[in-house]
Specification:
Blueprint (H helix, E strand, L loop, with lengths): L2 H25 L4 H18 L9 H19 L11 H5 L4 H15 L3 H11 L4 H8 L3 H26 L2
Helix pairs in contact: 1-2, 1-3, 2-3, 3-7, 6-8, 7-8
Length: 169
């Protein structure tokens, strides 16, 4: 790999690093090792696909597609024997504090119970991706994305309410 390609990959990963990590947390909210392994796999697949990126979509959409497809495949394959590479310092700085971590933990626990498509849609929605971009990335229509988001919100609220009722004395 040439120096320019290394710089391009570094820039691309740095630009989308937080989004990649969040996808890892959505699919493996309780397992730091699996999050790190998935992160490494996503970065590897981005590196591997850089030469074939035609620029027909934004780099954000392209990275999302790779990250989400990799996460779904990784999740279903339950691959636990991946090479471990520690998170770099910049990513560690983006990690939430303890209070935020607890709220995120609760949210991700609910999101974990969604199916793979719902996870992908809600993640991109929470990352403030426009519905048109979500639709393009996941090969859906904008109307379908809007409907799915509405149903996910209702579903998450219902799950949260059910958990609250169970916790009451």
């Amino acid at each position: 790999m040439s120096y320019d390609c290394d710089k391009e990959l570094s820039g691309l990963i740095e630009q989308h690093q937080a989004a990649i990590y969040q996808i890892c947390r959505v699919y493996f909210p309780y397992d730091h090792y699996q999050q790190t392994s998935l992160y490494n796999e996503i970065v590897y697949r981005i590196w591997r696909g850089m030469q074939s990126f035609r620029g027909e979509s934004t780099s954000r959409t392209w990275v999302y597609r790779i990250a989400i497809n990799t996460a779904i495949n990784f999740y279903h394959a339950d691959a636990c024997k991946r090479k471990f590479i520690p998170l770099n310092e910049r990513l560690a700085e983006t990690l939430p504090n303890e209070e935020e971590n607890q709220m995120l933990h609760e949210l991700y626990a609910l999101i974990e119970r969604l199916n793979a498509l719902e996870k992908a849609v809600i993640y991109m929605y929470l990352d403030r991706a426009p519905q048109a971009e979500i639709a393009e990335t996941l090969d859906l229509t904008v109307t379908n994305v809007s409907t799915i988001i509405g149903r996910i919100k209702v579903k998450l609220k219902k799950m949260k309410d059910e958990e609250s009722r169970k916790q009451r004395p």
